[in-house]
């Protein structure tokens, strides 16, 4: 029946894509078109090594985008992602290098530092009734400042061997950051799409009142979500630190912009209630391909920032346009 | 047997005193009509029962046990359900997600990963529930925002009935409904009564209230101003108690005529 070209095919394909894969068909197509364009523009684009490059470059942003998806689809916002990532890398490097802590602690410290920052965000949002936008904007400044204080404003070098493996190891030719990224994405997808926690997250973003009336512990759920968000920013910080082999207090600058853009492109509703990790992964890949392509074309990074900002506005515009069209129809 | 016992319930929002000591008893299988002016505090009183608001003072007991320390989820679990006037549905989620919100059944994914929501079972049971209510929805897999107001109300009703409640509070359940659907809600209330489930019905449609309830409680000036046996009262008296003295004959006549 799918062989006859009825007008319903497009909308049925859209439905199937969303229902089965939780991915918007449009973002899939944007990714393919973008990749095809890059392949035409640059002879280096289509190669296995460049493909792994893209995944590697996307791994940090991708993990942050997962965090953004959880928080935004619950009706919240975390602007501190990039700064918390930077702080976590510095904390991890400081503990591993300056304090010479044994191996698991460096990794644990990164994730823990991020989770603590996120937990503080969550506490303030749910107990002091300061809007998430303001709390996490404040945390953006605080975390970045703290990273500079701890590191004395300098990059921390000399990471131990095991951390290098996490950033630069390549079992079976696949970079470890890519492996971490993919596993994190799969677990996150399961949690958001298939568990009660995930469903409550979406319902909360949809209508806090309805969630509360249904007996969901709304504040607790939000605190957990911000803590997860911070923890994932910490994981991203660890990946980045291990990749560049140092703790850089300026790591992750403006990354929240790209991460939130990836989540929105992937179909997360900016106002909550809808979101999917697989969709966000497509969004993150779109951002990765865009940056990679602009790099190959030797476009200055200043222009890349402008491109990312423009894509964010465009993505929200298209999303809202569709929502308005649907509610009018 | 008293199922729900409220005494001395007080509640204020900042400087606004809404409830000044409300007493109310509801027996199992009893249908109570709760009426009063706009802003009389009906919804507020009901939200103190479900735990959305905590009362400033007073006692709330279900089956003789205080429930004041329980949160809204725990109160649902012991059998108190409410169809809210304002906190309705998660509109971007589908029918089953709304009906089972907070109560999702889980199973093991691939037989070993725990905690996976059993969506197939939710869909199946949601469809059965909607069917049992005699309602018609275009598709249960669509976001409920794509349904009409009345269809959404059906989903809210289904949610309140799916988990064997002891008490169902309905805050203006018929406000968005057409004639036939109003009748089916009234029939539903009678059916719940026959199953021994208590119902508190809040409605400005006094004819409906007079038609299905056993008792009518009038909320006025923050108190249960009157507690009337439906069999012994009439439209005139109810309207007089809501408005509070003065010439109520014309208002009552309008109510009587208006819904014929
Ligand atoms: N969350 C709140 N914060 C402040 N005031 C509130 C709140 N909820 C209700 N009130 C006030 O309490 C009073 C009672 O409101 P409530 O909604 O309980 O009335 P009601 O009897 O349900 O009215 P209606 O028939 O219009 O639904 C009103 O004056 C209202 O303004
Ligand atoms: Mg009300």
UniProtKB/TrEMBL annotation, chain A:
Localisation: Cell membrane
Q: Which residues cross the membrane?
A: 21-45, 51-72, 79-97, 103-121, 128-152, 172-194, 224-241, 253-271, 278-296, 302-318
CDD domains reported for this sequence: TM_PBP1_transp_AraH_like (cd06579)
Tell me if Glycosyltransferase is a UniProt keyword of this record: no
Q: Which species is the source of this protein?
A: Oricola cellulosilytica
What name is this protein filed under?
ABC transporter permease
InterPro entries this protein is in?
Answer: ABC_transp_permease
Q: What is its main location?
A: membrane
**Does the record bear Mitochondrion in its keywords?**
no
Gene Ontology CC terms, in alphabetical order = plasma membrane
Pfam families this protein is in?
BPD_transp_2
UniProtKB/TrEMBL annotation, chain B:
Q: Mind listing the UniProt keywords for this protein, alphabetically?
A: ATP-binding, Nucleotide-binding
Q: Which domain of life does the UniProt lineage start with? A: Bacteria
In what residue span(s) does the ABC transporter domain sit? 4-246
The record's annotation in InterPro entries points to: AAA+_ATPase, ABC_carbohydrate_import_ATPase, ABC_transporter-like_ATP-bd, P-loop_NTPase
Q: Name one Pfam family in it.
A: ABC_tran
Q: Which GO terms describe its molecular function?
A: ATP binding; ATP hydrolysis activity
User: What is the protein's given name?
Assistant: Sugar ABC transporter ATP-binding protein
């Amino acid at each position: 029946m799918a062989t006859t070209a009825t007008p319903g095919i497009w909308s049925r394909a859209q439905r199937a894509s969303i229902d089965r894969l939780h991915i918007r068909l449009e973002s899939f197509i944007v990714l393919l078109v973008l990749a095809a364009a890059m392949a035409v523009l640059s002879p280096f684009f289509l190669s296995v090594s460049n493909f792994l490059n893209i995944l590697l470059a996307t791994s940090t942003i991708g993990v942050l985008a997962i965090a953004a998806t959880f928080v935004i689809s619950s009706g919240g916002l975390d602007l501190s992602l990039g700064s918390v990532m930077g702080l976590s890398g510095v904390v991890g490097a400081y503990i591993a290098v300056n304090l010479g802590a044994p191996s698991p602690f460096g990794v644990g410290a990164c994730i823990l530092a991020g989770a603590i920052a996120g937990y503080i965000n969550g506490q303030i949002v749910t107990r002091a009734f300061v809007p998430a936008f303001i709390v996490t904007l404040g945390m953006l400044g605080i975390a970045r400042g703290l990273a500079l204080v701890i590191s004395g404003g300098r990059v921390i070098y000399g990471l131990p061997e095991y951390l290098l493996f996490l950033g630069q190891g390549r079992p079976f030719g696949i970079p470890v950051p890519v492996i971490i990224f993919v596993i994190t994405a799969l677990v996150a997808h399961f949690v958001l799409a298939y568990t009660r926690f995930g469903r409550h997250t979406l319902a909360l973003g949809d209508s806090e009142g309805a969630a509360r009336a249904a007996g969901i512990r709304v504040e607790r759920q939000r605190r957990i979500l911000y803590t997860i968000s911070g923890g994932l920013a910490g994981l991203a910080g660890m990946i980045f630190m291990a990749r560049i082999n140092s703790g850089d207090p300026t790591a992750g600058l403006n990354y929240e912009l790209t991460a939130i853009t990836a989540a929105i492109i992937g179909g997360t509703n900016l106002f909550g209630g809808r979101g999917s990790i697989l969709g966000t992964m497509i969004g993150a890949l779109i951002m990765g391909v865009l940056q990679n392509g602009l790099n190959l074309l030797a476009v200055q990074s200043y222009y890349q920032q402008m491109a990312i900002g423009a894509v964010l506005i465009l993505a929200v515009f298209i999303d809202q346009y569709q929502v308005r069209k649907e509610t009018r129809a | 047997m008293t199922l729900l016992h409220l005494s001395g319930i007080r509640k204020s929002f900042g400087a606004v005193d809404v409830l000044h000591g409300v007493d109310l008893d509801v027996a199992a299988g009893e249908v109570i009509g709760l009426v009063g002016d706009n802003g009389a505090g009906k919804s507020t009183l009901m939200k103190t029962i479900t735990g959305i608001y905590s009362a400033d003072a007073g006692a709330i007991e279900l089956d003789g046990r205080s429930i004041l320390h329980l949160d809204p989820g725990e109160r649902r679990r012991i059998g108190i359900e409410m169809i809210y006037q304002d906190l309705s549905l998660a509109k971007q989620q589908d029918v089953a997600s709304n009906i089972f919100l907070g109560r999702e059944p889980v199973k093991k994914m691939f037989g070993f990963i725990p905690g996976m929501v059993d969506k197939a079972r939710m869909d199946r049971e949601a469809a059965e529930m909607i069917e049992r209510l005699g309602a018609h929805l275009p598709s249960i897999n669509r976001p409920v925002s794509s349904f009409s107001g009345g269809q959404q109300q059906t989903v809210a009703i289904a949610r309140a009935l799916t988990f064997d409640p002891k008490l169902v509070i309905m805050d203006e359940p018929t406000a968005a409904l057409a004639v036939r659907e109003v009748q089916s809600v009234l029939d539903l209330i009678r059916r719940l009564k026959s199953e021994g489930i208590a119902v508190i019905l809040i409605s400005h449609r006094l004819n409906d209230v007079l038609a299905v309830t056993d008792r009518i409680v009038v909320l006025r000036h923050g108190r249960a101003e009157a507690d009337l046996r439906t069999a012994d009262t009439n439209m005139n008296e109810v309207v007089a108690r809501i408005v509070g003295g003065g010439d109520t004959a014309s208002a009552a006549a309008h109510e009587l005529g208006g819904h014929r």
